[in-house]
Amino acid sequence: MVKSLLFDLEKGTGPVLELLRSDEVIQTVEYIRVEYWGDGNVLVSDDELIVIFGIIGSLPRIRELRIEFDELPLPAQALRNAMAHPYSRIRYIALEDVRLSGSLADFEDVADAVRRSASLKTFRMYRCGPSPETRATLDPIITALSDIPTLKDVTLSTTHLSPEALGALGRSKSLETVSLDHMTISALPLAELCQSQSIKDLKFWGMPEINDDISSMESALAINNSLKMLRVRYCHLNQNSGVHIARMIAANKTLESITLENMNWRNFGGPIQKALEMNNTLRSLSLSIDSKDLQNISNDAQQIALGLEVNIGLQRLRLLFRDVSLNDIQKAFLGPITGMLRKNYTLESLYLNNGTLALSPEVDFLLKLNRTGKRHLLYKHAPNGELMDMLAAYSGDPSITHYALTMNPALFHV
């Protein structure tokens, strides 16, 4: 039974067509990858490609299609044929290094086929664009994605699109995950994405222009009630952007995880302290700070700890300082974090410089105690039954048992 196939067009199209027309492939194949990484010595005509992808689109069990081309334009009509079959069940499409060729009408035909898709869930484009000889753009195709009722996940990387086409994704009613890598965006499209009422996971990678439009992101995300995860990596967010994001964290009531990497944010402690004091829905926060001033790290550590003393939601905190030694980090954070954990019952994981630094045995123990989810019982008048259940659940850990009995000696008499 053949479920997956790899077609290398450098070896010619005859064997590909023969295999695609075989009964075994027609009845069983679910995954197909078509690739061409040659230097153009093997000629493949547009007509051949249009036929090949038309057959692929008509296969009754096909679920996943990957196209990886180099030095060979893909006719837009070939992609259209792969998607336009009325009974197509393709759920996943990925295009890598593809240059689409054809007329404006051909590209509109692809967009129409995309719009009519009844099963597509995942769409990926890596380093794609129109071929040099065409006047068409990929914009209509990407804009059409927002009309697919089944679409859940879109990734666009280093692909030639207008910012407006990216913003159109924010109008989708079904899209849940959007990942943009080295794409060009501006204020209004950025706001459209951040205002989406369906997107739950939003990722930006290598897009420093976000700094210019950070106020649009703040305003949109502050009132967004659907987004759960925000990741901004290698966008070199600056001090001003950090302040805007901290204000957004303070206002937003649904975000659960935020990752901000490679930030040039020298005084992050104060804004993050205020955000943590006001936000109790965030569960995970990861910050990677570049070019950190040594003289300010102690202040930042104290401010972060003060914010966490009153925060009752955050469970995981990761802080990475690229220009600070482990010794300096330990000196700055040990006291404030230890004091904070004596009052905070919810923080379960603390990673400093990717977890390579352990502050102290007491910090490790208090974090472990928080992970039990029962620490609050030790400081309140909890029913003896609940306390005994806790001791029974962690009877194999003498450190937790000893701590519980130390904090509540009455348990000796239960």
TrEMBL record:
State the protein's name: Inherit from KOG: leucine rich repeat containing
> The organism sits in which domain of life?
Eukaryota
